[in-house]
Structures are given as structure tokens and as C-alpha cells.
Design a protein that fits this description.
Number of strands: 9
Number of helices: 11
Radius of gyration: 19 Å
Strand order of the largest sheet: 3-2-1-4-5-6-9
Structural class: alpha/beta
Oligomer: single chain
Largest sheet: 7 strands, parallel
Strand content: 5-15%
């Protein structure tokens, strides 16, 4: 397949480009900024707010992995985030329709589920794709509106549009900060804002690959996280302490993630391979990483 990856200079984008190339596909990578560390030889600097540039970028592709959004509520005003992300997402969806591109995968977020989570607004745990959405920021609103737009465009075109709700993304060299930043009692309380969910960037990239290689997904939303929480505590103990009155949709085992990935496993074939538990030594220091992984991590 000929695949376009937007946001290719970003954290998920760099790893996604490499993963898709290693699977044998052709990649046209794009971002607002240039990067010398992209695995793609074909790298186009493009402004996705300009519909003409989006059309030139996407024309002739078989699939699009759209990761090119302002990625966070910090460092940008709410107006700037909403204006940029909604216009960019609309342009990509519209261009995919105009050029009859059969597959689109794009990055949504756990924020549409009510981030920061509070017990009174959680209907149940683990939080799955059927959980009610509750947006609390312009960033989350843009994601939720784009999820709705995705459904509309799927009905208009019958193309495959897959939404991946990513949790807090970690690169391989970032795990060493977890013990000092997240494991004290204060941070455990703070990190309940997304039910202690996280995702290794390599698994996020693999989910993007799975979504473009699958031919029968139609219009689906999937949660994409690590198989566990970011905490050393048992997941049930975390629930008992921080969400004691939230009902359980099913039993919780061991350290399993509380942002359920059951659907992604069953339908998408997603099986996360990476966790902080295999990346850290007993003293909390990070294990040695292959040099090629550090190259992408340190961009």
C-alpha cells in the first residue's frame, strides 16, 4: 500500500512511519516541521490547514494515518487548539472523500471519556468504548466532534475509518522517570485522572499498522493502551482506594489496564508487547536499549 502519515515528526508519528515501512508498505511522511530522523525517504512539509496542500499530499494514496494535531492542552490557547485541530481533521476527512481513499486511521484520545476522571462521572470500570463521553476541554471536544464526523464520512463514502483512542504515550527512554514522578501517594491520586492508563509508542504504532492492514473494520473506535497500569499496585487495590463507589463491568485481574482494550484485542488483533515492567530494573533504572530505538526517542 501507499500510505500517508501526517504528524510524522511527532512522537507517535516517527515510530508509525518506521513500523509501516518495516511491514513492506510505501510511506509518504508529512509534518509542519522537517525532521532528519524520519525513517521515510519521502518527507513532505505541509500545512494541513490548507485544503489544497492536503489534497496534494493525500492524492493517490491507499491509506492515511492521520496523527497531525496539536497534541495537548498546554502551550496553546483553547481557541488555537480547537481552530487548528477541527480544520485539519475536516480537511483530511474531506480529501479522503474527494479522492476516494479507502482507509483512514486517526488519533483520538482518552480525554473524550471525561479526563480528568472523577468518581461521580465514571459509569463503571474498566472504561470501554461504550462508556459515555464527557468532554472537559477544547482539545477533547475537537476529538469527540471528529469522532462524530468520522461516522458521517463513513456513511457518505462507505470507506474504512478507524478511530484509535490513545492513552498517555511513552517512548522507550521515558520509563525511567516513572518511579520518581508517579509512584508517591500524591501522584497516585493525580494520575487517577486517566485511570493510570499509558501506552508504549511502539504498540501505538503497531495499532496504526493493524488498522490499515485490516480490510473489515468499517467505522470503529478502539482503545489503545498498555496491558497494565502505570502503577506498581494491583489494579483492584487502586480501585478500592480511589474509586471505591464505581461499579465494575467485569472482574479486574492483577495489574491490568482500567481503560479496557478487550475490543482492540478481539477485533483489531491488537496485543501490546511493551510495558514499563519489562523496561525497568529493580532499582527503577532503565534497562539498556538498542541504539536504533534511542535514535527515535531522542529526536
Amino acid at each position: 500500500m501507499n500510505v500517508v502519515v501526517t504528524g510524522a515528526a511527532g512522537k507517535i508519528g516517527r515510530w508509525t512511519v518506521r513500523t509501516i515501512l518495516e511491514a513492506g508498505h510505501e510511506v509518504k511522511a508529512s509534518d509542519k516541521k522537517l525532521t532528519e530522523e524520519s525513517a521515510a525517504k519521502n518527507f513532505i512539509q505541509a500545512e494541513l490547514r490548507d485544503y489544497g496542500q492536503v489534497c496534494q499530499l493525500l492524492k493517490g494514496s491507499d491509506a492515511v494515518v492521520h496523527l497531525g494535531n496539536i497534541p495537548t492542552d498546554v502551550r496553546n490557547t483553547p481557541q488555537a487548539i480547537f481552530e487548528n485541530n477541527m480544520l485539519v481533521n475536516f480537511n483530511v476527512l474531506e480529501a479522503c472523500r474527494d479522492f476516494k481513499i479507502p482507509k483512514l486511521v486517526w488519533a483520538s484520545s482518552e480525554t473524550v471519556l471525561g479526563y480528568p476522571f472523577v468518581p461521580e462521572q465514571l459509569s463503571y470500570l474498566p472504561v470501554d468504548e461504550e462508556h459515555p463521553t464527557i468532554v472537559k476541554s477544547t482539545y477533547a471536544m475537537a476529538k469527540l466532534l471528529t469522532e462524530n464526523l468520522s461516522g458521517m464520512y463513513h456513511k457518505l463514502t462507505n470507506s474504512q475509518i478507524v478511530t484509535l483512542r490513545f492513552a498517555n504515550i511513552y517512548e522507550p527512554d521515558e520509563y525511567e522517570k516513572i518511579p520518581t514522578m508517579h509512584w508517591n501517594d500524591e501522584q497516585k491520586d493525580i494520575q487517577k485522572k486517566n485511570a493510570w492508563a499509558y501506552c508504549d509508542v511502539r504498540d501505538a504504532a503497531k495499532a496504526c499498522l493493524l488498522a490499515i492492514e485490516n480490510n473489515n473494520l468499517r467505522n470503529q473506535v478502539f482503545h489503545i493502551t498498555a496491558p497494565d497500569t502505570i502503577m506498581p499496585d494491583l489494579s483492584q487495590d487502586l480501585i478500592n482506594r480511589f474509586f471505591p463507589n464505581v461499579s465494575l463491568k467485569r472482574p479486574i485481574q492483577g495489574h491490568e489496564t482500567l481503560m479496557a482494550i478487550d475490543k482492540a484485542r478481539k477485533v483489531l488483533g491488537y496485543e501490546p508487547q511493551y510495558t514499563w515492567r519489562s523496561a525497568l530494573n529493580n532499582d527503577g533504572t532503565i534497562k539498556a536499549l538498542p541504539e536504533d530505538q534511542l535514535v527515535l526517542s531522542n529526536v
